[in-house]
Amino acid sequence: MWCRCTVFESIGDCCGTRQSGIDSADKAPHPISVLASSPASSPSLLLRTPHGSSQGKSTAFYTLLSRPGLITILAFLIGLAHNQVADPAPGITAAPHDDNLRYFDVTIQGPDGSPFQQGIFKLELFLPEEYPMAPPKVRFLTKIYHPNIDKLGRICLDILKDKWSPALQIRTVLLSVQALLSAPNPDDPLAPDVAKHYKENEKDAQRVSREWTQQYASE
């Protein structure tokens, strides 16, 4: 086995599905390029990851990988890097980890006009081995007062569960999470106490959401 892997602890989310906890660290985005591939009899990929230095030069970080789904992950990484440069999602960033290409650090800016506006929320995204047949795992790291996001950061979003399709792009998933901040749905809660607050006194619940945004999501 040539890539560094982490053991996940399963945790439940809404509708009885399972989600994984992920260790996270902030890293800058970087492009990925294929240097070489091995014969089909020994599937592996050699990736080159340029890193900028203080002198404006770059050094290369090489990773030799051999696991199921590597071609899919590589294609996603290249697509992600391309989209960030050519067609970035407004208010969203995503950066793959250096030591495990299944992990991504994500930031989502709170939408204007919502209680979460001007907030910068940190999330983590993990691609399971079953991806793209199974959805990615996404979790908030920044505390947020939202009826569809619980205290562990788990998200109740249909495309992360039964409405997932292999045709969906990661970019679409992150845009959907951002849209959820604009339209909290207390009728399908993952945080029952927050949902109750939103139903009984939406104005006051939005006030608390704004306070949490200022306290936990300000940079």
UniProtKB/TrEMBL annotation:
Q: Which PROSITE patterns match?
A: UBC_1, UBC_2
Please name the InterPro entries in this protein's record.
Answer: UBC, UBQ-conjugating_AS, UBQ-conjugating_enzyme/RWD
Q: Which domain of life is it from?
A: Eukaryota
The chain's coiled-coil residues are none
Q: Is Oxidoreductase tagged as a keyword?
A: no
Q: Which residues form the UBC core domain?
A: 68-218
User: Where are the annotated segments for Disordered?
Assistant: 200-219
Instruction: Give the Basic and acidic residues compositional bias ranges.
Output: 200-210
- One term of GO molecular function: ATP binding
Alphabetical keyword list: ATP-binding, Nucleotide-binding, Transferase, Ubl conjugation pathway
What residues make up the catalytic site?
156
- Could you tell me which SMART domains the record lists for this protein? UBCc
Family membership:
Belongs to the ubiquitin-conjugating enzyme family.
Name under which the protein is recorded:
Ubiquitin-conjugating enzyme
